[in-house]
Design a protein that fits this description.
heterodimer, A: alpha/beta, Ubiquitin-like (UB roll), DNA polymerase, domain 1, two-stranded parallel sheet, 5 helices, 7 strands, globular, B: alpha+beta, Uridine Diphospho-n-acetylenolpyruvylglucosamine Reductase, domain 2, five-stranded antiparallel beta sheet
Chain lengths: ~160, ~260
């Protein structure tokens, strides 16, 4: 067992974990933050996407010990504490960017990272599609997701042409 | 995942010591290949030595004739470096097309080349540009570094510190990507360097290799036409559910021509 301390959604969380514990297991099972989903568990679907130090990562392909001393943001840390949705979440609701909703937490976390990473660029449809390469959705056919991300990015103040 | 012991190193020498102290240790960099392998129980190391936090493995520096990238630099940082983009745009392009954004945020240059997956992208850049691998013990030319499928010239505890890429006169990378994983079904890196033309092929065979006939043809005339009709034997190439050996052989020619056409 190893003791880790991770800043999760702004608060410091310490725990004893087995060395082989995945970050997603730490989040879901230790902290009961079940918004981060496990889809494929093979690093392909992106449902487990969280941000570590502001960069999107797959929590099923990161060890909890690798997050020791780092800052992690999960979908639970995105809305305001009074429940007001983040503009990106609101855009997903407004533009029907989900059907079953399983991939949505990962999509939103990737979308937020996409806006941050491209803040100096104009966000186009093709950029959104290529940047969402690490997230799979089996319901929507992506059209509404791309639309939602474009609207959310615009609401966040990004330059959007999509 | 089988259980293992975990140690976080704070320097290269400490990492080597921790590695040598383990019965069957492996280094953990970004973990984008190692962790999936552990999850599938394809590997059972006794110890993981985490080199993810080593500042000695970080940094990108560009001088007039070379680009030096730390082994711990992630693909995103190589792809988004304005300096790399200016000095060797083909290298920037290659890094930008590895996996997906989340994988690029964790996966590292050193991890990719140490693993030497036959379908990895970076080996093509190292061999194509005639790069030099700087390890904790010595300097290894890329031509001698990649020895066989998942095999390199690295000794057990030897750690890659950085890679220096000579700036070429021109270079391009063209990849036929697996649509799901973005691994190279076939990728060809073509460069005109100060020591001549180099053509490196990844994805097609068990290990990255140089294509001598293409190099000779391009030395005479640097055009995609010069490559037409050059035979690529399928005999020793990979065959899997994604592509037959014959199809890969065909793709080697097509990717090489596309790479050349983009810079000719």
């Amino acid at each position: 067992m190893v003791k880790i301390s991770v800043n999760v959604n702004g608060s410091s969380q310490s725990a004893e974990v087995e060395e082989r514990t995945l970050l997603v297991e730490f989040l879901r099972e230790k902290l009961r933050l079940t918004g981060t989903h496990v889809g494929c568990d093979t690093s392909q679907c992106g449902a487990c996407t969280v941000q570590m130090n502001g960069k999107s990562v797959k929590a099923c392909t990161t060890l909890a010990v690798q997050a020791d001393g780092q800052s992690v943001t999960t979908i639970e840390g995105v809305a305001k504490s009074d429940g007001t949705l983040h503009p990106m979440q609101a855009a997903f609701r407004e533009h029907h960017g989900l059907q079953c909703g399983f991939c949505t937490p990962g999509m939103v976390m990737s979308a937020l990272a996409l806006v941050e990473r491209n803040k100096d660029k104009t966000i186009t449809e093709s950029l959104i599609r290529s940047e969402l390469e690490g997230n799979l959705c089996r319901c929507t056919g992506y059209q509404a997701i791309v639309k939602s991300v474009a609207a959310g990015a615009a609401a966040m103040g990004a330059k959007v042409q999509a | 995942m089988y259980s293992f012991k975990y140690a976080r190193a704070s320097s290269v020498s400490e990492a080597e010591k921790a590695f040598s102290g383990g019965e069957d240790a492996v280094y953990l960099a970004g973990g984008q290949t190692l962790i999936p392998a552990l999850k599938q129980r394809l590997a059972q190391p006794s110890d993981l030595v985490d080199i993810g936090g080593l500042t000695e493995l970080q940094g990108i520096s560009v001088s007039g004739d070379s680009v030096v990238i730390g082994a711990g630099v992630c693909h995103t940082d190589v792809a988004s470096s304005a300096e790399v983009q200016k000095a060797i745009p083909a290298l920037s392009y290659l890094a930008q097309h590895i996996g997906d954004p989340q994988v690029r945020n964790r996966g590292t240059l050193g991890g990719s080349i140490a693993n030497n997956d036959p379908a990895a992208d970076y080996p093509a850049a190292l061999v194509g540009l005639g790069a030099t691998v700087h390890t904790s013990k010595r300097e290894i030319p890329a031509d001698d570094f990649f020895t066989d499928m998942f095999e390199t010239a690295l000794e057990p505890s030897e750690l890659i510190v950085k890679v220096s890429f000579p700036v070429p006169k021109r270079a391009a990378y063209s990849k036929f990507a697996n649509p799901a994983s973005r691994y190279a079904v076939v990728g060809v890196f073509v460069a005109e360097t100060s020591s001549g033309i180099r053509v490196a092929v990844t994805g097609a065979g068990p290990c990255v290799y140089r294509h001598a006939d293409m190099e000779a043809a391009l030395s005479k005339s640097f055009s995609d036409d010069a490559l037409k009709g050059i035979a690529v034997p399928a005999a020793d190439l990979n065959e899997d559910l994604h592509a037959t050996a014959e199809y890969r052989a065909h793709l080697v020619g097509v990717m090489a021509q596309r790479a050349v056409a983009s810079i000719a």
